[in-house]
Amino acid sequence: MSEPPTLPQTGFVRLSAILAPRGPIPVSRSTWWAGxxxxxxxxPVKLGPRITAWRVEDIRRLIHExxx
Length: 68
What we know:
- The protein has one domain.
- The chain contains three helices and three strands.
- It has helices spanning 15-18, 29-38, 56-67, and strands spanning 12-13, 45-48, 51-55.
- Strands 1-3-2 form a three-stranded antiparallel β-sheet.
- The longest helix is centred in the C-terminal third of the chain and has 12 residues, at 56-67.
- It is globular, with a radius of gyration of 12 Å.
């Protein structure tokens, strides 16, 4: 058995660390981006011209709200 994915305590994470199979959220990339556009998922932060990431705190909040 593999260990469940863990998120860092603070900082930023890339999309590959958020979405399954490596991440905790089991949706496709297209579903994720549609959810970002509609406001269901957190908005990303641009760290550079080709680097998009999300705040770990926002992802943890999304997971916690989904479990409630």
